[in-house]
Design a protein that fits this description.
two-stranded antiparallel sheet; globular; 2 strands; 61 residues
Length: 61
């Protein structure tokens, strides 16, 4: 089974921030969500982050 490694970067979503999260989907969702809530005051739902990941994945194909 192939594991999907993804990367989300704050700067890609309009934040003046160098934070990046890379790894398996569940890890990135958890880490990015915690960071954006703690640092930027934005609470992204798991569903919203999944949509961001799906959009990003579709752009690569």
């Amino acid at each position: 089974m192939k594991l999907t490694v993804i990367k989300l970067k704050c700067i890609d979503y309009g934040f003046d921030c160098s934070f990046e999260s890379e790894g398996e989907v569940e890890h990135v969702i958890k880490e990015f969500s915690e960071h954006t809530e703690d640092v930027h005051g934005i609470d992204y739902s798991k569903e919203a982050l999944m949509q961001i990941i799906l959009n990003k994945t579709m752009q690569k194909t």
